[in-house]
Amino acid sequence: MSISTKGSVFGQTGNIEGTKRRLFFGDYDLQVDTETGSTTATLSGRWAWEEMISQETMLGYYVGGEMGSSAINGAFEGEQTNLSLIAGGYVVHALTDTVFADGFVSVSAGRNTLQMADEVLSLEGEYVTQTLTAGGSLTGVYDYGRYELHPELAFSFGTTRIGTISFEGEAYGLTESGLSLDARTITTSTLTLRPEVIYALEDESLTASRSHLSFAPRLLCERTKSTTTTNRCGRGAEIGVNSSSEDGLSSASFRVMMDRVGASNRTSYEAKLQFRF
After folding, report:
1. Which of 22, 63, 148, 187 would be a feasible disulfide site paired with 159, CB 3.0-4.6 Å?
2. What residues have CB less than 8 Å from 4, skipping those under 6 apart?
3. Distances (CA, A) of 180 to 120, 127, 164, 174, 184
4. How would you class 72 by CB atoms within 10 Å of its CB: exposed for 0-12, middle for 13-18, buried for 19 or more?
5. Helix, strand, coil percentages for the chain (3-state, nearest 5)
6. Could you write out the DSSP letters of every residue in 7-35?
7. Geometric angle at alpha carbon 118, from 113 and 121, rounded to 5°
8. Closest listed residue to residue 226, CA positions, set 192, 182, 266
9. Which residues of the chain have pLDDT under 50?
10. What does the pLDDT read at residue 85?
11. Which of 151, 132, 257 has its CA nearest to residue 198?
């Protein structure tokens, strides 16, 4: 099981007509694996520019960076650090008043350092990764008064080239600097069908209610390719509750996500507090 805490800051400016805006996103994420004791901390920032090129279509692009550090526990103990530069673009298009299509693509390059050791062997190495991510979704928004239905079909693809990792190893007082590991390229693809129902808890109208309950069953298939190829399909569900203050400046939400994909079970929990200044 893993425990995660996240936080974010957000700011935006735009023109009077509302057709252009500039945004800033800042995020931090801390994850703890309760089984191994490993922790991962990530800090990222992005600047984005968006423009309505028509009444139905919005284009956006962004640049940013990310820093990460992981403390590894288990059979090997050590530390991994990462510094990455990221750029990407996205588009959102209204096909009808209730159906929307969106797509995105991003590229990143990162420099990583890795230190691992057990009782006998100590390893230190550096490597560079290049990542390409792309995807899209088709989403509907259907209003039925007290509840809304949001069916979604989404696809994502990601490939990361790690290549050869060079290590310097030490064991029994001897040092070897010519060690290497060919990590090659890892590719993942995911297809998800996810109809979500959002229900108003306080009012007959969903837009007027300050508290909502959501439920989303889903079917998903995953394909992972590295030295071997693995195809897995499964099903799962999400259930969540959201409540906002009367002035709309703060909100709280809690969500549980459960999936069974192939032979593995996945469960995660998300609690979120938001404050606007």
Report:
1. 187
2. 29, 30, 31, 32, 268, 270
3. 18, 11, 6, 17, 12
4. buried
5. 0, 80, 20
6. EEEEEEEE-TTSSEEEEEEEEEEEEEETT
7. 80
8. 182
9. none
10. 95
11. 151
